[in-house]
Write a structure and sequence with these properties.
alpha/beta, Rossmann fold, single chain, 9-stranded mixed β-sheet, 2 domains, globular, 10 helices
């Protein structure tokens, strides 16, 4: 389903000052004013496609795609509140050559709260959105942009919602390459809590090994000194002892003009745009990676999540069951037919050891008793596949988040089952580490 943005905003505004000629057409034809206070703020009109039918996976496009022009695709990942959406808007302003002295700022997202317009949106991104920016290839950048903005990674909510949405976007919308994975972090972090370490592990475990050299760290809330967070990232030694490729930002993008602070804001703006130039120069020279291996990793993560959920589940729970393997491949499934179940990949079940066809599956109430031996075999296979394809095969974060939720609900039976699986995973990790030493 495709629609064109026809959002109506409250109030009629008179713009302050003159706009440069290069922005006048964009302002008059392609945007809607949402705040007149200098600098005026505009929401860019986008052609929108709802990929999953629930506004959870989206493609928003400005301009017209020119197949003769190069395209660069960015995947934005990071913790809740790291500033991912603000960076997306900063990239858009850079791409269309907005300068500090211009009386206009643009945004492509709708995540803001504005007292002057009485227009509000939840500032937290809940959808996976591909923003396509076409038509400005000859303005500031020699290529068009596709920016994939994602919900913040939250350990307690698990990875499943993000994995499902990201996999759907990459597969259904045929996003066949990624030029850079942008890891957004705050400069002020000087140590990692266990919660934050799990989030960082989760971030790394979503990527294929081939993405190792395509990771760029974007550091927000920077004060122009060496960010403490760099030491934390270096502790993971993904690049040995090398300092990771990184750029710092603190652009005050939508800051209202104030004569007392304008010089400070202008300096941080110029420094931010200088970092943005360095980032895009780096991006211009990077080789893209196909998404095939990352999709395979996402499939394995889904299998892992389902393995953790296998246990004593009430008989009224609907499941997709394999009549060949005699196992419950996906409990709690809402798909109307086995073919549309999320554990199916090109008509084959990713949970079945033999990758059975969707035609060998039935949808109904759960009917096969869980077998610990079978579960162990699935976890073993999953772990081996993760070691083969994933940048880091972290299995623990997903399980920890489920244990936390079960503990909050006081579900003692579920806690017992999860602790048993935790022991199984610990055995698997030890076994594989012993094999590597031999």
């Amino acid at each position: 389903m495709e629609t064109v943005n026809n959002t109506e905003f409250l109030g009629d505004f008179t713009l302050n000052g003159d706009h440069p000629p290069r922005l006048k057409e964009t302002i008059s034809r392609d945007s809607i004013v949402i705040n007149p206070a200098p600098p005026a703020r505009y929401l860019l009109k986008t052609k929108r496609k709802d990929v999953d039918g629930r506004d959870g996976v989206r493609r928003w496009t400005i301009g017209k795609h020119n197949p003769c022009k190069r395209n660069k695709t960015l995947l934005i990942l990071g913790e809740v509140g790291a500033g991912k959406t603000t960076l997306v808007n900063a990239m858009v302003n850079f791409a269309i050559r907005v300068k500090w002295e211009d009386n206009a700022r643009f945004q492509i997202t709708e995540h803001f709260k504005d007292k002057e317009t009485c227009w509000a949106h939840d500032p937290r991104t809940n959808a996976v959105t591909a923003y396509e920016i076409f038509g400005w290839e000859d303005a500031e950048l020699p290529f068009s942009l596709t920016i994939i903005d994602t919900p913040g990674i939250e350990d307690r909510d698990g990875l499943r919602p993000l994995i499902e949405k990201l996999r759907m976007l990459l597969e259904e919308e045929r996003v066949d390459h990624i030029d850079a994975v942008c890891h957004v972090v705050k400069a002020t972090q000087n140590r990692l809590t266990e919660h934050q370490r799990n989030i960082f592990d989760a971030f790394l475990s979503l990527l294929g090994k081939d993405m190792k050299d395509n990771i760029i760290t974007l550091i927000t809330h920077s004060d122009e000194t060496r960010p403490d967070v760099l030491d934390i990232i270096m502790d993971y030694k993904l690049l040995g002892d090398k300092v990771p490729v990184h750029f710092t930002f603190n652009t005050h993008l939508f800051q209202t003009r104030n004569p007392f602070y304008d010089k400070i804001y202008e300096t941080t703006w110029e420094n931010g745009m200088k970092s943005m130039r360095g980032f895009f120069d780096k991006l211009n020279g990077m080789q893209h990676q196909r998404t095939k291996q990352t999709i395979e990793v996402l499939v394995e993560r889904l299998k892992l999540e389902d393995c953790f959920k296998h246990g004593r589940i009430p008989s009224e729970v609907v499941a997709i069951c394999c009549t060949v393997c005699e196992m419950n491949c996906h409990t709690g499934c809402v798909a109307c037919q086995p073919y549309f179940c999320q554990v199916m990949l090109q008509g084959k079940c990713t949970m079945c050891p033999q990758r059975c066809s969707h035609k060998k599956h039935v949808r109904g109430h759960k009917r096969y008793a869980d077998d610990h031996k079978n579960l162990r075999a699935q976890l073993t296979e999953c772990f081996q596949n993760m070691r083969k394809n994933a940048l880091t095969p972290h299995l623990e974060p997903s399980l920890k988040s489920q244990i936390q939720r079960a503990n909050e609900k006081g579900d003692k039976q579920k806690l017992k089952e999860l602790e048993e699986k935790k022991g199984t995973i610990a055995d698997l990790i030890k076994k594989n580490m012993d094999m590597e030493r031999e």
